[in-house]
Specification:
Blueprint (H helix, E strand, L loop, with lengths): L6 H14 L6 E11 L2 E12 L3 E7 L5 E7 L3 E6 L4 E6 L6 H10 E11 L2 E10 L6 E6 L6 E7 L5 E12 L18 E3 L30 E9 L5 E8 L4 E7 L10 H6 L14 E7 L2 E7 L3 H14 L1
Parallel strand pairs: 6-12
Antiparallel strand pairs: 1-2, 1-11, 2-3, 3-4, 4-5, 5-6, 7-8, 8-9, 9-10, 10-11, 13-14, 14-15, 15-17, 16-17
């Protein structure tokens, strides 16, 4: 019958849906995050704590095993403590679930159950997520069906080379975790930075002067959808437009500026900011970069895509201008 999933397809989809939701139990553990930069790699260890439905704490450890950064998420806000600078940053709360992202993932990726594997003494179902559009990274997820905890994830380039691997090295499920663990560290007023949200541009009618000839693009043929457009400060009274797109799993940023924007190399800081939610299915790493100039504006694309895929998006944008 058309529109009816076969048993294997239903199992694959259900396991993927399980992996995208917040786990059903409390847990604490240690995770290793490995990121590859071509032939080089970098590993970071983190202590993690989760309490349903939405309390999350991650402690990034430096090479000496000391806490260098703490990320706390609750229903009210996200807090980031930087140990070196003794700075506490407050941001708006992050959502652990987004129906649009889930629908885009199901539309842009094929989920395939690949059997089971034992991780940390738990029976983990393996789900392979293959992109339907060329140039996007694929992912393999190991999820515990009994709890919904994602025990391991690998992200790979289209050529099969690894980009990131995250896995537990220790885990204690159904731990008793006090609410105080998810409260922000005590800090004086001069140590707290409020990360105010950037001004949102809600449509082409709100484009500021100097950007009104820029085409407003709601999505690309490669499955990326516009999630937000904001104004980003560049310096004294100068601003750039930042369009944020998502295909469900990967992020694409498109910048329009009156002067060149320095994208910079992928750095240690990028490694630290990846996978800071308890599902860690999505990713925020930078990936490939493409820059060009056109009619007095400077354009920058940054995304977890191959250079060829970014080139196709660039041509789409240029043809719309």
């Amino acid at each position: 019958m058309p529109g009816v999933l076969k048993a294997g397809e239903l199992e694959s989809k259900n396991l993927f849906l399980l992996a995208t939701k917040a786990p059903s139990v409390s847990y604490k553990g240690t995770r290793t995050i490995i990121t590859w930069f071509g032939s080089e790699s970098q590993a970071v260890e983190a202590k993690v704590y989760f309490k349903p439905p939405n309390l999350w704490r991650q402690e990034i450890l430096n090479p000496q095993g000391q806490v260098s950064r703490v990320v706390i998420q609750n229903k009210e806000a996200e807090w980031i403590w930087e140990e070196e600078s003794k700075t506490l940053i407050k941001r708006p709360a992050l959502s652990l679930g987004n129906d649009s992202l889930l629908n885009w993932t199901l539309a842009n990726y094929d989920a395939l159950a690949k059997g089971y594997d034992e991780i940390m003494g738990r029976n983990a179902a393996i789900v392979e997520l293959t992109p339907q559009h060329r140039g996007s990274p694929g992912r393999t997820v190991w999820v515990d069906p009994a709890t919904g905890i994602v025990l391991k994830i690998k992200q790979a380039n289209p050529d099969g080379s690894l980009v990131t691997e995250v896995h537990f090295t220790e885990i204690d499920v159904e731990s008793e975790l006090p609410e105080s663990l998810f409260e922000p560290p005590k800090a004086s007023q001069d140590q707290i930075i409020i990360d105010e949200p950037r001004p949102v541009v809600r449509g082409p009618g709100e484009l500021p002067e100097g950007f009104r000839q820029i085409s407003w693009i709601d999505g690309f043929p490669s499955g990326f959808h516009l999630t937000k457009a904001t104004l980003m400060p560049l310096g004294e009274e100068e601003k750039a437009l930042h369009f944020q797109y998502n295909d469900g799993l990967s992020v694409l940023s498109f910048f329009v500026s009156p002067r060149p924007i320095q994208a910079g190399p992928r750095s240690h800081q990028v490694v630290l900011t990846q996978y800071e939610d308890p599902g860690f299915i999505t990713s925020t790493s930078a990936g490939s970069v493409l820059e060009w100039e056109q009619e007095g504006h400077y354009f920058l694309l940054v995304g977890e895509l191959s250079q060829t895929a970014l080139q196709e998006i660039m041509e789409f944008i240029r043809n719309r201008s």
